[in-house]
Amino acid sequence: MKRILLAEDEEVLRMLVVDTLEDEAYEVDEAADGLEAVQLLNSRTYDLVILDYMMPGYTGLEIIEKIQSSEIKAQGKILMLSAKSQQFEQERILEAGADYFMAKPFSPLKLIEKIEVILHEAESIHY
Amino acid sequence: MKLNPYITKSLSRQVVSLMTGCIILFIAGTGILFYHLQSLHAEYIQHRQSIVEKQLLVDDILDQYHSVFLNMTAYNVFNKEGLKEQAIGQEASIRGEIEEFKSIASTREDRVISSRLERFSDYYFNDALPSFLASQNISDTQITTHVSDFRSQIKSYLGKLSEMRDDNVKDLTKEQSVLQGLFVGLVLIFLFFFLFIVRSIVKNIGRPLAEFSMAANEIAAGREAVISVNEHRKDELGVLSIAFKKMLSSVQEKEQELMAHNEELMAQQDELHAQQNELQVTLGIIRDNERKLTRRNELINGISSTLDKSEVLKSIVFNMSNIISADRGMIALVHEDASSSFGISDNGVQQFRDNIHSGLNFRLLQEKKAFTIRREQLDAEKGYHENTNYSYDLYLPVLSTFQEVDAIMVYSRYGTSFTDQEVEECETLAKQIATSLDKIKLYEQTEGNRKLNQDILNTIKEGIQLIDQDGKVVQVNQPFCDIFKTGSTPEQVIDLPWDKWSAEMSFQVEGDTFSRSLDEAIQHLEEADHEQRSFIFKKKETNQVIKVYFEALRYREVGFGTILVYRDITKEYEVDQMKSEFVSTVSHELRTPLASVLGFTELMLNKPLKPERQTKYLQTIYNEAKRLTALINDFLDVQKMESGKQVYEKKYVDILPLLQKVIEHLEINTEHHDIQLQIETSDLLILGDRIKIEQAFTNLLSNSIKYSPYGGRIVVRIYSRNDMLVIDIEDEGLGIPKESLPHLFQKFYRVDNSDRRRIGGTGLGLAIVDEIIKSHGGQVTVVSHYGKGSTFTISLPSVTQKEAGLNHDRQSMKLSYEIMVIEDDINLAELLKYELMDSGFHVNYFNSGRRAFEELKKSPPDAIVLDILLEEGEMDGWGILRELKVSAGFKEIPVFISTALDEREKGLSLGAKDYLVKPYKPSQLSKVIMHTLLSNSKKGQILIPHSCEEGDRV
């Protein structure tokens, strides 16, 4: 079972993503802000980390930077969710080290598709 | 005188010859006398020598004889042979001397003596001596006698010789005396002769000369003169006489000639005199012209030296007065209030100005030609003169190029009239003055235009700078100077060279590319497109953002310079930034609920879900949609407020019912919150927009509820402090972290707090509250203890009842007047109803007159709003009005007609309080009704209706 961390400060969206992922039989941990996310990330390695961009505590970008600088445990893939959909924001996020980017509002079905692709890719590289 | 002609020809020769002759004679006479004296003297010396010689010889002979005698005697005695020899030896020398004597013997006596001596010698040597020797004793007696005799003879001779010598001296003396006498005689003769000569010279020369001199005098004196000098004289005088006569005659001739000449000269002189007169006349004219020219020159100098009108006018009056020797004078412009005077009081000037279009000025304005006036002198002009004197006034027009009278000049002169020539000259000068005035007019116009241009430039908000091809500043406006502190006025900036101004400006601008960008932009202006003709820079200290545009300036196809326009786009820039920030935030804020709505919907559409989950999702969707709506409403509010488009309809509002309403409304939704209202003041009126104030309180109270998730007490306290009405809203909720307090009223700011995350919100509520309260002249503050709760405090300027025009206390104040609205258009009725309710009225609405009357009878309202055109078949507005005004119970109820019919007069005449023609501002109606009701209640009587002002209508 793949384990995914979802860091999102909006409760409703969290519910949406968690419900969707759990339906697909992923194990999901939830973090309601940056601090919680960092805590969880330090406790273990996730196959996928879904980060909201705008979060109290640490922003998604800050968390990526922390992972990159090995300040926190290395993780699998990173997917960034952001309401900032402008091209340059996307580029910034990908440059920072995120593997994928998804703009809000997003389609939960598409998210699942994407996650499957990502994790499959990761698998094919691992094995 | 018969002299040699050589001598007779020359007077000097005559004199010289006479003098020479005289001197020769004198010298000859003297010479003769001298010679005679010399020869006399020589003869005397010769004579005396021969006598002395004879004497000496005789003496010598005698001495020798003597010695012989002695020797002989001694021989005789001593008988010494030597002695005898010596005596005999002497015989030869005696004999020689005797011979010598004989040779010099000149007289008879001498010769006697010489012979005597010879004889004695013979005797003695031949006879006596030998005898003596022979005898030796010869008698002595004989010899002695002989010798004695001889001696006496010789002695006598010697005596005679001495006598002769004395006689000789006597003779000489005598002869010398004679000669001296002769010399004296000679001198006397010479003197006489000399006198004679002098006399003759005087006679022969002096007299004719005197005569000549007299004659010359006579001639010189112009009289006839006769010369009596002999013409036949050959000397100079003769010549002179002839010459004199000749001269005389020639003089006389000459004189006649001269006389003729003189006459001729006289004639010529007359002619010259005539010419001179003519020349003098010409000279006079020339001088006159010169004077005129000088005056004109002075005038022109005076008026062309400045462009200041008053200076020029002053100079004109001064110079003109000088030129025509006027005692007083003035110039006044006809179309402008400008004048200058000389010797005239201010009153006089004013009087002249006041009458510039009348009297003599009128004549001048009509005739446009100079004229003079002769008038009796005024008392003030007369001085001490008692009899009648005259003054002369010269009226001179100054004609413009269009032959209009631009200015009037008047000059007065005491006693002397103006000649035509002067008037003419003045007119010429007036032309000059006209030119100068034209010039000034042109200058003023130009200057005015320039000022106008500068003013126009200055009123433009953009800084404008015109530079020439070299980059030198040609023109700038005030805003430019305000943007750049290169100088405080345009004048200080104009003419600054490129280097200077660009450097100074660069210094004030952030970054170091300003100067270069500027240079490049100007250099490549021609090929630049519209975008490239501008760039934006930021100023260092003021942080102004300025956009500068360039435009090439051409004058007759030739590049003249560049216009630079500096626009302060700080505000636009900030607004722009804010806008994009706002848009970005808004989009972000909208995306989150949208994501939920879309996401859950998608799930529901694509997945088979359990009913509980479906309900949960639907609930979520609903909530998020509501949140979206609230967000959008808040956005719109914020946008409205920020763009300044929010209009607050401020009225007197009683805060208490408002708060009660808000609390009531919110209480419904919560069970665990206890909202308490504490009233600690009676001044509850504010001036405000009811809806907005309500919104502010709703926001605050709902926040209090939201952020007290575990319930608790919420206290709303109303009290007064320093003319402010203060409302505290105190909760016992989560409280706000200290660091968040300063940002609390910022847009989209949300306190990061895990507890809060569950609490929805747009982050705009407090920003809206702040904006509303500030717009009401109030303030909202917050005090919070994190974890214990927060207190938000709103203070608003309180309005006393007096200010509000309500002079009764709240209890007696009938805020809810009953208003009856009779209106058939339901929409309009609704609008009016809300408007009136907003203003605190209680509204009853009827769409038919009949039903309204029924209601009227039950409870009469305080005022009626009446439409004229009602539903068909019904009583129309006019009917209702008439009926109302005749029934005793209702005729004092004020009726306000609200209609589309413009029949104000009819309405008012029927007794309506006011007449509003649709469409009008709803607030207008409230205002009019409120006003009427308040004045009624104040005065306790019905007043004449106040008509609404035209301008208030929409």
Q: What is the count of helical runs of chain A?
A: 5
Helix/strand-derived category of chain A reads alpha/beta
Helix share, percent of chain B: 55-70%
Give the total of domains of chain A.
Answer: 1
Q: Cα-atom Rg of chain A, whole angstroms?
A: 13 Å
Largest sheet data of chain A? 5 strands, parallel
Q: Roughly how many Å apart are the termini of chain B?
A: 162 Å
Q: Report the end-to-end length of chain A measured between terminal Cα atoms.
A: 16 Å
Gyration radius of chain B (Cα, Å) is 83 Å
Query: Which class of chain A in CATH terms?
Result: Alpha Beta
Helix/strand class of chain B: alpha+beta
Number of beta-strand segments of chain B: 22
CATH homologous superfamily heading of chain A = Response regulator
Instruction: Summarize the largest interface: chains and residue counts.
Output: A-B, 24 and 27 residues
**Could you please say which CATH topology of chain A applies here?**
Rossmann fold
What's the rounded overall pLDDT mean of chain B?
A: 82
Structure in words:
The complex is a heterodimer of chains A (127) and B (954). Chain A is an alpha/beta fold and 127 residues long. Chain A has one domain (3-121): 3-Layer(aba) Sandwich (Rossmann fold), CATH 3.40.50. Chain A is 48% helix and 20% strand. Chain A contains five helices and five strands. Chain A has helices spanning 11-23, 34-43, 60-68, 87-96, 108-126, and strands spanning 3-7, 27-31, 48-52, 77-82, 100-103. A five-stranded parallel β-sheet of chain A has the order 2-1-3-4-5, with helices on both faces. The two termini of chain A are 16 Å apart. Chain B is an alpha+beta fold and 954 residues long. Chain B folds into six domains: 5-205; 305-448, GAF domain (Beta-Lactamase, 2-Layer Sandwich); 460-568, PAS domain (Beta-Lactamase, 2-Layer Sandwich), CATH 3.30.450.20; 575-635, Orthogonal Bundle (Helix Hairpins), CATH 1.10.287; 648-797, Histidine kinase-like ATPase, C-terminal domain (Heat Shock Protein 90, 2-Layer Sandwich); 818-952, Rossmann fold, CATH 3.40.50.2300. Chain B has a five-stranded antiparallel β-sheet, with helices on both faces. Chain B has a five-stranded antiparallel β-sheet with strand order 7-6-10-9-8, with helices on both faces. A five-stranded mixed β-sheet of chain B has the order 12-14-15-17-16. In chain B, helix 25 links the parallel strand 21 (895-899) and strand 22. The longest helix of chain B has 81 residues, at 140-220. Chain B is elongated, with a radius of gyration of 83 Å. Residues 807-814 and 938-954 of chain B have low confidence and may be disordered. The A-B interface holds A 9-13, 15-16, 19-20, 23, 32-33, 54, 56-57, 83-85, 104-109 and B 584, 587-589, 591-600, 602-603, 606-607, 613, 620, 623-624, 752-754, 757-758.
